[in-house]
């Protein structure tokens, strides 16, 4: 069935297309990806970066990838600073006493053990917070609302996410005692969404937390009726340098000079759920697709599967990989880190010489209901160093309509994964790998998106 892959440089295009189609369609019955994400979430569970659980996940991954037949399976470790959450509670003191559900943001500062009590200053949007006068938040707790909308491409995350990404830093510079934000999510429940935040050098981190969307809506209604006083307790801490690491496995190629096809997802997760959609699904999808190439004739290019560590807290795994392997020739890179729902669009950033590869890929993906986008692919956080260095990149965009209902919440569990949509992802990735790893075209450097 797969002789065309071995002879990809000599067989006519229709024969190769037929073989890729057979591989793609067989992947629609895949059970490897679900088995991997089921095992990871059941046997390991939450995997915060730098934790003992993340270390167990690496050991688990080493065994599973080896058992699947991958070659050169190994772990590459590095050191990173680690933040751990502690007690996190909040309650309205006045005018309407009641408890609120919230969770600390990564890198949040801490309140005293007994907490703090202060009036809130309500901001309808991040822009309103940014426009607040210097010093106007002294002695206050900033509360930033927002109204993230669900979209297929998840584009609202970057826009509304600013309240989490840099809102605490801005509030600290304006004198706030602490900040609470409405969770960056599209649900209406009481499960808060965590995620990391960033403080500039020289800015002392203040307590920073995300309220569940429902509780934030309730607090907003209270604020409309008059002054609100909040009691907040957050006791996270920085615990120093600890070990994280990347797990690497390969499908060896026959032509070392043709470069590496680098794929994968991140192994770490936040601690509230079990990390099924973020990003157990991504590591499972990419490994399952690569295994399908492992079972046939060796591809022209080596396919390297990396399960990166410490993505959630700053992408240290991606940086460590690039530091160790950046001088190797990478022909193409792609990652899966947007859940487990169906792929609906493919975006590419390929050199002009590889346009035929892009055309073949678009044709192979069309039967899966995947359209060709008009923008350049940009990759994701784990492969950002390679993309910035000019490595060609392809994005298989997943449907994000419901992704931010569960992202970084206690609801990120195996139940969020639809096996049929997961298989469609594996089929798409199988087609991508079959074509890219065997493409006769040179996959040289490209100009990164935005440059």
List its traits.
451 residues; alpha/beta; eight-stranded mixed beta sheet
Describe the structure.
With 451 residues, this protein is of the alpha/beta class. The chain contains 15 helices and 16 strands. The strands form 2 sheets. The protein has an 8-stranded mixed beta sheet, with helices on both faces. Helix 10 links the parallel strand 11 and strand 12. Helix 2 runs antiparallel to helix 15, helix 10 packs across helix 15 and helix 12 packs antiparallel against helix 15. The longest helix is centred in the middle third of the chain and has 19 residues. The N terminus is likely disordered.
Brief sketch in words of this structure:
This protein is α/β, with parallel strands linked by helices and 451 residues long.
Q: Biggest sheet, open or closed, and with what strands and sense?
A: 8 strands, mixed
Our count of helices gives: 15
User: Average pLDDT value?
Assistant: 95
General shape:
elongated
Hey, roughly how much beta strand do the residues contain? 15-25%
- Class by SSE composition: alpha/beta
> What integer value in Å does the Rg equal?
23 Å
Number of strands: 16
Task: Please give the alpha-carbon distance between the first and last residues.
Answer: 42 Å
Contiguous runs where pLDDT drops below 50 for at least 5 residues: 1-13
Amount of helix: 25-40%
Strand order of the largest sheet: 1-10-12-11-13-16-14-15
């Amino acid at each position: 069935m797969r002789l065309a892959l071995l002879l990809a440089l000599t067989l006519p295009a229709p024969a190769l297309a037929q073989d890729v189609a057979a591989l793609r369609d067989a992947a629609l019955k895949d059970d490897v990806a679900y088995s991997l994400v089921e095992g990871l979430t059941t046997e390991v569970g939450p995997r915060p970066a730098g934790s003992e659980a993340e270390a167990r996940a690496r050991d688990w991954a080493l065994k599973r990838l080896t058992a699947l037949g991958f070659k050169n399976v190994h772990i590459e470790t590095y050191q990173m600073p680690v933040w751990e959450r502690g007690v996190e509670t909040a309650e309205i003191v006045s005018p309407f006493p009641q408890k609120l559900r919230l969770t600390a943001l990564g890198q949040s500062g801490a309140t005293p053990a007994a907490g703090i009590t202060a009036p809130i200053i309500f901001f309808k949007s991040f822009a309103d917070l940014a426009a607040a006068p210097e010093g106007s938040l002294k002695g206050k707790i900033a509360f930033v609302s927002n109204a993230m909308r669900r979209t297929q491409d998840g584009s609202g995350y970057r826009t509304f996410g600013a309240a989490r990404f840099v809102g605490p830093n801005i509030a600290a510079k304006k004198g706030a005692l602490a900040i609470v934000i409405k969770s960056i999510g599209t649900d209406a429940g009481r499960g808060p969404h965590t995620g990391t935040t960033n403080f500039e050098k020289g800015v002392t981190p203040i307590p920073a937390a995300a309220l569940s969307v429902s509780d934030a809506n309730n607090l907003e209604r209270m604020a409309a009726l008059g002054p609100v006083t909040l009691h907040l307790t957050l006791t996270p801490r920085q615990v120093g340098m600890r070990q994280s690491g990347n797990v690497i496995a390969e499908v060896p190629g026959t032509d070392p000079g043709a470069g590496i096809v680098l794929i994968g997802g991140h192994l770490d997760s936040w601690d509230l759920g079990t990390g099924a959609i973020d990003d157990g699904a991504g590591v499972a999808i990419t490994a399952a697709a690569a295994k399908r190439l492992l079972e046939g004739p060796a591809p022209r290019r080596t396919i390297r599967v990396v399960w990166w560590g410490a993505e959630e807290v700053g992408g240290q795994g991606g940086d460590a990989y690039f530091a160790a392997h950046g001088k190797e020739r990478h022909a193409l890179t792609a990652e899966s880190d947007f859940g487990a729902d169906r792929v609906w669009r493919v975006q590419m950033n390929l050199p002009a010489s590889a346009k035929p590869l892009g055309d073949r890929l678009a044709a192979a993906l069309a039967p899966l209901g995947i359209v060709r986008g008009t923008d350049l692919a940009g990759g994701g956080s784990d492969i950002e160093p390679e993309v910035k260095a000019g490595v060609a990149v392809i994005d298989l965009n997943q449907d994000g309509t419901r992704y931010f209902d569960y992202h970084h919440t206690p609801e990120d569990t195996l139940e969020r994964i639809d096996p049929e949509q997961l298989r469609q992802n594996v089929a798409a990735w199988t087609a991508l790998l079959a074509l890219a790893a065997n493409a006769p075209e040179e996959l040289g450097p490209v100009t990164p998106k935005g440059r």
